[in-house]
Amino acid sequence: MSQTLHPHSPYSLAFNANELSARWIKVVESEVPELEHRPVYQLRFEFACGKKVKSARVRATAQGQYQLFINGVKIGDEELTPGSTDYGVQIAVQTFAVTNLVDKNAIVILLGDGWFRSVMGAFKQPNNFGTHVAALAQLEITYEDGSTEVVSTNKNWRVGTSHITSADLILGQNEDRRLINTAT
Fold first, then answer.
1. Is residue 128 part of a domain?
2. Closest by CA position to 176, among listed 10, 5, 17, 37
3. CA pseudo-torsion sign 1, 59, 24, 44
4. What is the spatial distance between Cα 52 and Cα 144, in angstroms, rounded to a whole number?
5. CB 21 within 8 A of CB 152
6. CA–CA dist 100, 98 (Å, integer)
7. Which of 35, 42, 143, 168 could staple 162 via S-S, CB 3.0–4.6 A?
8. C-alpha 64: how far from its chain's center?
């Protein structure tokens, strides 16, 4: 069970994995692209709330790095989320309060290599934790009438490439700004 550190804190001490109904969305490539051609992927899901929202929070993480958007607003001020971690041992999950953003919704996750499969270490080797990036997110909504709804990553999310045509922590990033989806 989650335990909030402070009523206004976006952080929880811990959570039970059984609290998540979300499923990993793994980006499956026919073959792993060469380092200079690894794009940032865009995962997208749209839905509408049919009732007045009392509160909402989203939990997210990735095997790779992610940026999360709801209705075009970037969630959190962190970069390179979820941060450097030993993916074989643990993956940090971030929790954000998003009550004021939830209505008719487009949830977008930009997903890149990050520490999961970027070039790193003294020998600058790629794919240190795996060859395919993945994301996990769960939006938990409580309505004014007391009912709840959970929107989670699953097979119904659309997956495609983003305007970031290549990205690596060491090798840098290339973008084609003509490809930006204004709904991000």
1. yes
2. 37
3. positive
4. 6
5. yes
6. 6
7. 42
8. 9
Q: Name the pairing type of β-strands 134-143 and 104-112.
A: unpaired
Is residue 81 in some structural domain?
A: yes
Determine how many CB atoms are found less than 10 A away from the CB of residue 37: 10
| Number of domains forming the structure of the chain | 1
Residue 133 burial by CB count (10 A; 0-12/13-18/19+): exposed, middle or buried?
buried
- Residue 8: inside a domain: no
Percent of the chain surpassing pLDDT 90: 60
CATH of the domain at 172: 2.60.120.260
- H/E stretch holding 116 reads helix 114-117
Domain that holds residue 164: 27-179
Could you tell me the pTM of the whole model? 0.86
- DSSP E strands in the chain: the ranges are 25-26, 41-48, 53-63, 65-70, 73-74, 94-97, 104-112, 134-143, 148-152, 158-161, 164-168, 172-175
Asked whether residue 17 is assigned to any structural domain, the reply reads no
